[in-house]
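Give me the fold.
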Amino acid sequence: MMRLHSRERILRTIRRQPTDCVAVAPYMYDVAAVAAGVSLRDYYTDAAVMSHAQLRLHELVQQDVISVGSDNFYIAEGFGCQTTRDENELPALLKPAVDSLKDVLSIQPLDPYTDGRMPLMLEAIAKVRAAVGDEVAVRSPGTGPFALASYLIGTQQWLLEVGMIEAAMDEADEKAVRHALDVTSETLIRFGKACADAGADIIHCGDSLASCDMISPQTYQRFALPYQQRVFRAWKAHGITGSILHICGNSTKVLDLYAETGADLIEIDNMVDLATARQKIGDRVTLVGNVHTVTELLQGNRQTVREASQRCIEQAGGGRGFVLGSGCIVPRRTPIENLQEMVSVARQTPVE
């Protein structure tokens, strides 16, 4: 088979069609700012800077997917959340959108073209797509409904409120919790559609607060899964065929549920054995992962990255229905040569 462009390689991999070599897509946001020599504040507040930085990173690494995005709060700010604006740190939550759970009932879904920093993300996606044409795949940002709902009242308070419902406590307010999840789901549906319309191939749902490291499988099934399913179902109806679910932590117990979300790709954290993931759900979804972001990418060298990449490909069954990726976001100071080595391994590996 002749050498494919990166975008076609990714699209074929998602469709489980033959490709020339293993697809490769480390999950990279702010490492692009370092690669381009720009401040983080400029990166996350200026679409031109963000797109320039991601394009510069791609020039250096040549990965198959360019990931547009920066932090978790670009949507939440549209609801009224207050965040930091540091020169060399990504935004962090300073103040939730409302003071109490009952106040959530007044919140309504957002418009991705006017609210928060969603317009910035859409502009950056469009700029990257215009620059690379049809040769490279583009991945959108995208928080998950459970995580996004937590920013409305603060993460600790959100988990407490959900826990009170699970414990059937008298003071629990399931109506308000469900309203928050309805609002965030609808907002994510609108944003994902807008990202696809702007040129993104892979539409991202990152719901890491729904990790089994944070909530029980039972809570996941009750308060996260139905809303993720709603989001992915709506995206699919819009014609999106490259939706991805990213949830950090050890998800081994709920991999089957992840495959039921409707996502086309499941990004596997390094805490999960890829061979197990392949056995459980590899026949239903495309797997992405899971080179360790710290011990192998940030702290490792070309040899450790090569060995880790080869191990991931082997555990995933040789590359069909698999994208070689990182377990999570690539750390900001990761050596570029380590990322280049990861891509090199994939390029040299035919799909079995």
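The chain has a mean pLDDT of 97.
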